[in-house]
Fold each of these.
Amino acid sequence: MRNRRGKTSVTESRSMERIRLSSRESLRASVVFVIVLIIIFGLSSGFTRFNPFAALLSQGEFWNFILADFVPPSSGRLGSLLRAVLQTIYMALAATGISAALALFLSFLGTAAITRSVPVNSAVRAFASVLRNIPNLVWAFILVAAFGIGTVVGVLSLIIGTTGYLTRFFIEILDETAAETIEPLLAAGASMPSIVVQALLPGAMPGFIAWILYCVELNIRASTILGMVGAGGIGLLLMGYIKQFNYAAASTAIVAVAVIIIGVNLLTTYLRKLIMR
């Protein structure tokens, strides 16, 4: 019994030493990470001439401006505000729907499971990478110069960026689904079209829908920003209020934007959880 107890105490002491050693390593890594972040922040602040203390000391002027001019929000012009809100939502939904259709077609060409051509796969992936890596604001500036101010510019800007994102996500989903379904079905003698229609698409559809809902949420946020450069929607209305120094009406528009984004976020999160069960 003594030997067993002795062995047990030795084992426990060794396990405690291992726990302490791992916790020390983790603590050391955390300290190093924090120090590196502080150094990077200091260098970045010096390079950009950003003084955090001056920013903190000037908070009083900011809040005085907000409380004096933005509060309380104006209750007038609710009709134009509602039309702008609906316009923003329609822009996001239209752009996401068109982008989903384009991305589905491109993803069939971009995945090696369906299109067994490396040059075609690489070309589609590179094209999608270019679309998603150029910010929507850049596309909006280019399209405003070409088409002028309006919702068409907003929808086109959102379509370009969203198509790039969804193409990438759809390709990844198809690759993951194909790894589990295609080879056994091909070995069983099934044709590729039947595999795509009856196995690949049904298996990938929950992931498709989840990413489409996520892009709807992103596009509503992005359409607000794009509207401020002339792409229509509530962003254009908000920028007009600010240029007119009508800060009370601008405050109402900002509140409306926050309510829309929070509501859509809650709705899409609930739908994604419902679909992914």
Note: The chain has a mean pLDDT of 81.
Amino acid sequence: MTEHAQWVTMNDGVRLDVSVHRPDGPAPSGGFPAVLLIHGHGENGSKAMTAERARRLVSQGYLAVCYSVRGQGGSEGLSFHLGAREIYDLQDMIDWALALESVGKLAVCGSSQGGWHSWMAAIHHPGVTCVVPENIFVDYADFAVPEGALSTWFFTRTMRRRVMSAGLQDMARQWATEGEWARIRTWTAPSSPRHFVGRIRCPVLVIHGWHDVGMPANNLLSMMEALTVPWMLYLGGGGHDGQDAENAATFRQQLVDRWLAHWLKGEDTGLLDQPRIHYARRPAWDHLATDRLVGEQADVRYLCVDGSLTAEAPTAATANTNLNNLTRDPTYDLSRAIHTDMAGVLDAWPREEQGFTGPVSETASELLGIPRLVLHTLPATPHYQIHAELLDVAPDGTTTLISRGHAASRAATAGRHLRLEIALRAIAYRLPAGHRLRVVLTNTNPAYVVPLCRPWRARIYHEVGRASRIILPLAG
């Protein structure tokens, strides 16, 4: 193969650093099947991150084009952090790649920032044959400010990396500390793939991991069901954070290989005859397939004031549970948390938990879909953040996080009853016999959401007519 580096000039004069990886020998009739690869976001993000993948594609007969996004790697310009300017560059790069003498059909692939570019290629360029978005949100506003709270990932990673920024990093931190959270959502929303689902005209294979700290699969599932083009979805191992398994990585790679071979080379890989959703069921990472990631039945468990989690609904009045957010350091405010990547936040605003544990399971069961927690509450202040965690408790007491979610507000009516519904992250999980389920409610979970850094208190109710509960989607 040959690898050739060069500058490609965008329509505003900025030059991007591009490499073309080409198989040796003459192009086949109709040109080489080609793949445009875009790397992930970050201060070290560049085309070098995709070089190994490009060489692997060339060994399979593809021509691969890699480029560094503006403001990253060797490319000129300033980063708009998945904004309109990156879309213009993407369109220019697709046109440039399709104009290469030896190129036939073209796919766009990438992970994280590159996954967003893959979605945008399907939305904004009719010349693309297929796309493979990997490990990326489909709603930018929900990624930045999910369920009324500030995303830890957005502020400590996307907005804190030393990228050559055009200004969004500074503005986002300013808006966060001034309480202008709606402006963050307004700025990021137009770059959300889910808003343009009707414009997608090429086949889409999405690869996504259960473990992405800032990117749950919930919005992705609803978007996939709205597509009118051929699509497939893999959910399981991989993603930005968390554990993986060798069989999961191999399975993902095989799916991508078969997808590209079908749409770019015209090979009959048999992939489209299978169910559209492939998923890895935790914790063993065994792979299954379905057309809808929805449990066939619901198992309702009630949160009781004595700390139990039962299948029996309450029949009488009971005491309530209190959840508090209290500080050891009143000087530790939101501005300090944002500007220090939350260093020392749990020392200043300690975690408080209320736990509810179920009985030992006599048989194995499989969670499949989105667990939903219904809480009957009474907040003492307009602001609160209630976090929920669903845990697997093994016989030896070891706990494993199955899923989590939260609900937050800055405009509740203090002293008035409030019914909250928290959608936990979609998951496929097998609970073995002999294990227990445990629900934990807590005031803070800084791995996912920036704490409010303001005192608050909420009551959680368990009585008849106000029975807090979790609804578990179970496979048949």
Note: The mean pLDDT is 96.
Amino acid sequence: MIDLHTHTNKSDGTDTPRELINKAISMGISLLGLTDHDTTAGWMEAAQSARGSISLALGSEISCLSDDGTSVHMLGLLFDGNDKEMQEMLEAVRDGRVPRMQKIIAKMQAAGFDISMEDVEAARPPGATLGRPHLADALVNKKIIKSRDEAFQGMLNNNSQFYVSHAAPTPLDAIRIIKKAGGVSVIAHPFASLRGKILKAADFAELAKAGLNGVEVDHRDQNPDERGMLRNIATELGLVVTGASDYHGSGKLNALAEFQTSPDQWEKLESQANQRRVVST
């Protein structure tokens, strides 16, 4: 089993990297992609926890904004974690998350909700990349909503009155920097309409021309028709087709390895990195 998109408590998941690896091993997963939001902070612990037959594709899910303001998430895998430009990009995105959160909270307070930055910080694990899921957890703790899923279907949806955009690289910039760092890029859940504004089919040609390597087709936030459209787009553009869980632990319903990538598609994707960086034991 190959699952290329997972999160730990180094961003907005609930498992430590070690706990995630242990779960993956117990399930018989052969290759796991660790892709915390805008950070590589979990890489070392994950690599130290790997054992037996599991291998790791280390990476990050990079928060991007297109020129028209569409939120895009780009998975970077197998890049050099010491690449200076890559780490500068990730740090810049992380730095922009605090003022963004403050603006969202201010909007909620203006609407009469009893929520504060202190509440969010209390819900964020130490060292984790700040994100809206931590705000969702704070809203749950204050009994304003019942779950993270409810939050992202309503108050924290990209079309919500409380949405605030963030400083971020364009998808083209992210692809360029990932490629320069020797890695491969896969656009995550690009047709997940429940999250808000999505890309158009015509947008993929430009991304492919810039060096996009793959498309995350099989994901729970994309219905069968959307998956079919994405599979056709990937085939037409010669892009790798991936499937993944987008696992976040107990924070979301997504089950580890509920969607997977086929071995032949993984081999095609890995071959496009500038060197073999899979962590094996």
Note: The mean pLDDT is 94.
Amino acid sequence: MSSLVVNTNLSAIDAYNNLNATDSQMSKAIQQLSSGLQIQTAADGPAAYVQSQALQSQANGYQQAISNAQDGVSLVQTASGALNQISSILQTMDQLAVSSANGATNDATSLGANQQEFANLQASIDQIAGTTSYGTTNLLDGSFSNQTLQVGAFDYSSQQITLSIGGASTGALGVATGSASVGTASAAANAIKLVQSAIASVDSIEANVGAIQNELQAIAANLTVGQQNLSAANSQLVDVNMAQAMTTFSTDQILMQTGTAMLSQAQQAPALVEKLI
């Protein structure tokens, strides 16, 4: 159709439609450049948005699971440090028992001194076992049993660890005041067996705690790699290519300027009809 008409200016309409499309593209480019995201809502890409939300949820779960595993490491390290102290005390108690068992060279005074120190060491073990805690959770009084550590993003049994730490009080170890003493040579001879058995028990508890610590550290390392990979995958879906978006924005700026100029020219076309009159 000729542009020399007054009622319908197709050139102006075409220019307006092109300018409107350019404005929409430019607004989208500005939105992407200002946010750094190409997928912000489901309208930007329903399938990509759903997939992104699932990846983000899993990545967040991994991040929290890493924190859980690290907290678990701190917990078992707390227990391990206290167990080391108890083991050291038991070694001293073993020395006292062996000393008192040598009845030929000990008199009542030396046996009494050994017994006093032995009793103090027993009290120290009970104090450590009764007060060692992580937060408000006691670790060595025998109550820490079948505790669950969540070390994964999902509610699967394979992503949970059950942790138990044996009691390390003198009662649990069999060297309580009523069971072990070194006040006489015969009592000391019996105490040697009891204390050495207690040392073996503490060693076993420490070995279990150490194995759990190594497992948790390995899990945390693996989760860290997984979390990084999930974040990278999500980035591929939602993060905008800034160079590409900036190129698009620059092109749209030029099209906006030329489109505005052409719309102005098209709107003036019907005025040429006046020259025919």
Note: The chain has a mean pLDDT of 87.
